[in-house]
Specification:
3-stranded antiparallel beta sheet, 114 residues, alpha+beta, 2 domains, single chain, Arc Repressor Mutant, subunit A
């Protein structure tokens, strides 16, 4: 699925630096758009657009508090991304270990052959 021409999967959405910054701020706690905009080098409307993309991707949720909309990082979505990253690194390190073991066995066999 795409939103504003951006892939809405979590990794694709987080490829944009402003969205990563917004998520870093939300990791510290819930914030309204105005609070986020004060801490970022982008305009308030740009923050709102990025939040919409993050919300569509399921990375943030929002709630109405009085006259403001407060955004929260969705910790389940972040945990799912972490699980994907852990799986990726486990497979990569396992593949590296297999390659090293194979190479070591190959060298040992080569040394034994006269």
């Amino acid at each position: 699925m795409t939103v504003d021409g951006v892939n809405s999967d979590g990794w694709g959405v987080l490829a944009e630096p402003s969205r990563r910054s917004i998520c870093m701020h939300l990791a510290e706690g819930p914030r309204a758009v105005g609070e986020l905009a004060k801490d970022l080098p982008i305009s308030r409307p740009a923050v709102s657009q990025h939040l919409r993309v993050l919300k569509t991707a399921g990375l943030v949720t929002d709630e109405v508090v009085g006259t403001r909309r407060v955004y929260h990082l969705d910790h389940l979505a972040v945990a799912a991304l972490r699980d994907q990253l852990d799986t990726f690194w486990s497979r990569a390190l396992s593949g590296y270990q297999d390659a090293v073991t194979t190479q070591s066995a190959s060298r040992a066999t080569t040394k034994e052959d006269p």
